[in-house]
């Protein structure tokens, strides 16, 4: 496909006659699909699928409605990640395994013939895809374990997630007993944000709590992730 053809597509009428604008936020590794409803006004046998990123608008593939055959010979670098098939009302584009590189907007289009005139492409209003990545969570004692007045600190680090928005909660357990939520126990908690990671700091009164196991729960759009301390993580260190 030449640059002139892409420019022609961008300058044609953008009529929301196909799918309505929508937003999908799948987890990385999941599959996702986009539907394109084709009305009877479109006599042309081909449906085209496009991917739009911030500075790039590219055709992915076309699908022949009569046979269901697809053509990926448009040079898209991720072409093997996509499949397309006919449906009762039109066609569907599918990504079998979502990655962060698939975050983009997706459009379908069909060519509309006009009596006694040149036809034009009509585009659907599109679907925006934002790939979601669960956080990597780890819990460990602070480098300086024993602080003033017999207190210790636990750090819960959440990193490598998208979007970078999380909610922390702490729980503790003694001798395989029930989990106790620390939200209402008065334990002091701090939260720090740096590029690419967010840390929750729990201040623990060591003299009474060193026999507990502590768990950090990180709530994220992609799901809740838990990390747990070992029983001896808060035991005093000897000088």
From TrEMBL:
Segments forming domain Ig-like: 19-108, 135-235
Main subcellular localisation: membrane
Pfam families xref list: C1-set (PF07654), V-set (PF07686)
Subcellular location: Membrane
GO-annotated cellular components: membrane
Protein source organism: Oryzias latipes
Protein name: Ig-like domain-containing protein
Signal peptide range: 1-19
UniProt keywords, alphabetically: Immunoglobulin domain, Membrane, Receptor, Signal, Transmembrane, Transmembrane helix
């Amino acid at each position: 496909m030449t640059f002139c053809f892409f420019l022609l597509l961008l300058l044609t009428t953008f009529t929301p006659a196909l799918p309505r604008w929508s937003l999908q936020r799948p987890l990385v590794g999941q599959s996702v699909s986009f539907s394109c409803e084709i009305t009877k006004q479109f006599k042309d046998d081909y449906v085209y699928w496009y991917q739009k990123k911030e500075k790039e608008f590219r055709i992915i593939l076309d699908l022949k409605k009569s046979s269901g055959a697809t053509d990926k010979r448009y040079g898209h670098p991720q072409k093997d990640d996509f499949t397309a098939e006919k449906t009762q009302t039109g066609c569907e584009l599918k990504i079998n395994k979502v990655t962060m590189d698939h975050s983009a907007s997706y459009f379908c289009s069909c060519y509309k013939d006009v009596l006694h005139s040149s036809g034009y492409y009509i585009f659907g209003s599109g679907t925006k895809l934002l790939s979601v990545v669960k956080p990597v969570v780890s819990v460990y004692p602070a480098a300086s374990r024993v602080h003033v007045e017999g207190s210790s600190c636990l750090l819960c680090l959440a990193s490598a997630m998208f979007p970078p928005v999380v909610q922390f909660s702490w729980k503790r357990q003694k001798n395989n007993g029930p989990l106790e939520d620390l939200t209402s126990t008065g334990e002091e908690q701090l939260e720090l944000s740096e590029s690419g990671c967010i840390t929750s700091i729990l201040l623990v009164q060591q003299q009474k709590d060193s026999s507990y196991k502590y768990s950090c729960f990180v709530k994220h759009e992609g799901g809740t992730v838990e990390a747990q301390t070992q029983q001896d993580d808060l035991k005093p260190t000897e000088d």
